[in-house]
Amino acid sequence: MSQYKIGMWLYQNSGGEQVQQKIIDRLRERDIISIPDLNLRHSIAKNGNIICKGVNMEELDLFFSYNAGEQTQYQVYLYEMLNHFVPIINNYDAFTLSEDKFKTSHILQRNGIVTPEYKLCHRDDIDNLKNVLREWGGKIVYKPTDGWGGMGLVKIESEATLDMLLPFLNQTDIRYFYVERFISYDNTDFRIDIVDGEFVSCYGRQAPKDDWKTNITSGGKVILREPDDEVVEVAKKAAKITGLEIAGVDLIYDQEREEYVVLEVNGIPAFATPEQEKMGLNFNDKKIDLIVNLMEKTVKGE
After folding, report:
1. Residue 154's pLDDT band (boundaries 50, 70, 90)?
2. What are the beta bridge partners of residue 10?
3. What DSSP string describes 48-81?
4. CB 98 within 8 A of CB 244
5. Do 75 and 16 fall within a single domain?
6. Pick from 16, 31, 163, 271: most CB atoms within 10 A?
7. Among positive and negative, which fits the CA dihedral 235, 16, 21, 19?
């Protein structure tokens, strides 16, 4: 019987190289071959085959794509095609859904998950946007529908702020505005990791002083925190609704309405860095084990 072959593309910085090696070692223990560093950027498609570094991608039993912030349009295009022939974790449909904040929020709300109230409107519909600003108490957050790490987020607290933002946005190719009601919270969030429907870990992030964004790339810092059952169940349900096999669900607590609110569902939630492990985030091994179990189950069709 031939061995199963799994192709991988996993980020290498911030401890990613060590995580990848652990995955390779644990797969080897199960008699599963790993082929790392299959970056679709270096591939070419010809005559019914996608070839990456000499590997025929359609002959893999599974492709594990786990690299945030480095996806080009070319890679995503091939990712979509490859998904028709090879199991991919995360699957393409769920991955693209999680990359779009409007679509994610819309589907979550349709399925009973509380997200920030939102408005999607054409960029010429400024009067409607100003009405929303007044309706939501004079505070809204403008978000690009794609992007990560808090990039592009702008808090709008007055019509004057909105008027200042519009000329900049009009110089871009943005055709619509996505805005959310600003939620009063304690400037900390919850990140819940879920793999194959199982709870992996919980930690938090705290915004820097005099700021409201908790993202690490925006100056936030990681904090230890314990989840309650409600947070975990909300995260599990959000992951299931989006269809992500691996998900990182971001939540905050709305102090005015006294309820948890899902901000985002991330398809490539990071492992703990070596520095974070030293401060007490010790979930990497559990997450790796669950991912390897998921891979084995998938290639064996279980």
Report:
1. confident
2. 66
3. TEEEETTEEGGG-SEEEEE-TT---HHHHHHHHH
4. yes
5. yes
6. 271
7. negative
Whether 141 is in a domain gets the answer: yes
Burial of 47 (0-12, 13-18, 19+ CB in 10 A): exposed
Contact call for residues 263 and 215 (beta carbons, < 8 A)? no
Place of tokens 């019987």: 1
Number of H helices, E strands in the chain: 9, 16
How far apart are the C-alpha atoms of 157 and 161, rounded to whole Å?
7
Q: How many domains does the chain have?
A: 3
| Whether residue 19 is found in the same domain as residue 83 | yes
24 and 64 in a single domain? The answer is yes
Residues 46, 36: Cα–Cα separation, whole Å: 22
* 3-class SS of residue 114: coil
Domain that holds residue 46: 4-89+292-299
Residue 268 has pLDDT above 70, yes or no: yes
| Secondary structure (3-state) at 88 | strand
User: DSSP string covering 167-217, please?
Assistant: HHHHTS---EEEEEEPP---SEEEEEEEETTEEEEEEEEEPPTT-----GG
Rounded Cα–Cα distance for residues 119 and 130 (Å): 11
More confident residue, 22 or 207: 22
Residue 83 has pLDDT above 60, yes or no: yes
d(CA 173, CA 177): 11
| CATH of residue 63 | 3.40.50.20
Helix axes 16-28, 284-299, angle to 10 degrees: 50
Residue given tokens 């590997």 in the structure block = 55
Q: How far apart are CA 99 and CA 73, in angstroms?
A: 13
